[in-house]
Amino acid sequence: MMDSGQNGRRSAAVTRASILSCARNRFAAQGYERTTIRAIAQDAAIDPSMVMRYFGSKEQLFDAALAIDLRLPNLAAVPSADLPNVLIRVFLERWEGDPSDDALLMLLRSAVTNERAAQRMREIFAGQVGPALAAAVGPETAARAAGMVAAQLLGLALTRHLIRLPAVVALTEDQVEATLAPALRATLEQAARP
C-alpha cells in the first residue's frame, strides 16, 4: 500500500482522517448507494480491508461522515432585523467557504435517496438550527422557524450546488443575500405569529 511517514507507515489518526475525507468526497459526488468501500479505499491509497478495520462497515463509515457541525454563531445578540442576513451569510460561508469540506453537500445529495442521511439531516437542523434560533426568536416559535429557514436554505443549496441552475450559480454571495433576505425575513416574522 501507499502508506507514508515514519518507517513507511502513516499513523492510525492520519489513515482514519484520510479514509473519512475520501468517503465524504465520494458520498458527496455519488451519494450513498453508488459509493463503494473499494472506491473509497482506492482514493485513500489503502487496501479495502483497512476501511473495514477502521469503520466496520459502509453504514458506520457513512455515520462517521455525517458528523457535521453547522458552526452557527450565538444568535441571541443579533438584532431581529439583521437575523436573515446573518443566517444567509453563515450558510453561504459553510457551503462555499471551504471547497474541500463537502460534508454538507454529501449529506444533501444522500438525504434524497437514503433514509439514514435524511434522518441525520433532520437531526442536524433540529439539534443545531432550532436551538440557535430559539436564542434569537424564542423557544415557542423556534421549531417552526427552523423548519422554514431550513426549507429556504436547503433549497438554495440544492439549486446552487446540486442542480446548478445557471441563474442561481451566477449570483454572487452578496446578490444571494440581497435576494433571499426579504423572503427569510418574512418567514421569520410569520413563524413568530401565533
Offer a quick outline of the entry.
With 194 residues, the chain is mainly α. The chain has 2 domains: 6-65, Homeodomain-like (Arc Repressor Mutant, subunit A), CATH 1.10.10.60; 83-192, no CATH class. It contains 10 helices and no strands.
Fold blueprint:
Blueprint: H1 12-34, H2 37-44, H3 48-55, H4 58-65, H5 83-96, H6 103-111, H7 115-137, H8 139-162, H9 166-169, H10 173-192
Helix pairs in contact: 1-2, 1-4, 1-6, 2-3, 5-10, 6-7, 7-8, 8-10
Please characterize this protein's 3D structure.
The protein has 194 residues and is mainly alpha-helical. The protein has 2 domains: 6-65, Arc Repressor Mutant, subunit A, CATH 1.10.10.60; 83-192, no CATH class. 73% of the residues lie in helices and 0% in strands. The chain contains 10 helices and no strands. The protein has helices at 12-34, 37-44, 48-55, 58-65, 83-96, 103-111, 115-137, 139-162, 166-169, 173-192. Helix 2 (37-44) packs across helix 3, helix 6 (103-111) crosses helix 7 (115-137) and helix 8 (139-162) packs antiparallel against helix 10 (173-192). The longest helix has 24 residues, at 139-162. The model is unreliable at 1-8 (pLDDT under 50).
| Beta-strand segment tally | 0
Which stretches are low in confidence, meaning pLDDT under 50 for 5 or more residues running?
Answer: 1-8
Tally of discrete structural domains: 2
The class by helix and strand makeup works out as mainly alpha
Question: For the terminal residues, how far apart are their CA atoms?
Answer: 62 Å
Helix content: over 70%
Broad shape: elongated
Query: What series of H and E elements makes up the topology?
Result: HHHHHHHHHH
Largest sheet: none
**What portion of the residues fall into strands of 2 or more residues?**
under 5%
Number of continuous helical runs: 10
Mean pLDDT: 87
Instruction: Using the CA coordinates, give the radius of gyration.
Output: 19 Å
